[in-house]
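Data availability (excerpt). The following record was deposited with the supplementary files.
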Amino acid sequence: MKPVDQSIVDPKRGDCFRASIASLFELELEQVPHFKLFKDKWFPIYNYFIRSLGWEYEGYAFPKTHKISETCNVNGYLCADVPSRTFPNIGHSVVIDLKGVVVHDPNPNRLWQGVNVLESGELTGWHLLEKRPLSIDADAGVS
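Predicted structure:
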């Protein structure tokens, strides 16, 4: 995990999710699409992007019904959602470890940094990502 800060701190077009994904996959912010700009069509673009990195989107988990899985994470880290501490009634994306501690808050104000969101009860949910196995296609080679 390489911390990447969001470049847009705004309740309508902020890019904290983009920065969290960049952090998880150790990419530059500019290498990740700004999913929020695609409005209601963002998910297919996100799914395609994750697949292009060799990962599979397995779903979204909620703390009331799921425990943090040791299998659906990126090297021990997860992209998670919490309430924004900057803007009322807005969600915010952060990177947490398997214990629920925010290891990177992409907002430059770092208001979530170091908080255990499992213990505080402020974790809204997290993205389940799993590494895709390599497949061999006799006609196309390795994919």
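Summary of structural features: The chain has one domain: 16-132.
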